[in-house]
Amino acid sequence: MEADYKMTGKLLLFPINGKGKCNNTVYEYEGVYNIKCEKYTKKDQKHIRVTDFTLNLKPKRVVFGFENLVDGNEQLSNEVLKTINENSEQVYADVAPAFNEAIGKYEKEVFNRVFSRVPEDELFLP
User: Fold this and answer.
1) CATH number of residue 52's parent domain
2) What Rg value do the Cα atoms of the chain yield, rounded?
3) Which of 61, 84, 98, 106 minimizes the number of CB atoms within 10 Å of its CB?
4) Under the cellular component aspect of Gene Ontology, which terms does the record hold (predicted)?
5) pLDDT (tens digit, 9 = 90+) per residue, 73-95?
């Protein structure tokens, strides 16, 4: 997942105060998805709208990539990032709620874009 980030606080034992680009990769995950939908009519056709989308991903491996974790100190940022990746399971456990929420919002938007264009009877054939 590529994004812009802004982070302040502690991660593991490191004080973090950075912002910039991130590229975090999740490998071989299992997930539980909970999707709630409602039906509505648009131009005399029935459509589906996702009203709630939550998920819980459990990856086998995560690789974190953050630039500028310690604002203005590239060497320390690189060392912190190295330590974060050496302890990626623990770090992922700390950030999983926010990560799952961000992915859920994105996937909800994608589903709703498709569902708004394709009527229910074309989504689910008899």
Assistant:
1) 3.15.10.30
2) 19
3) 98
4) extracellular space
5) 899 999 999 999 999 999 899 88
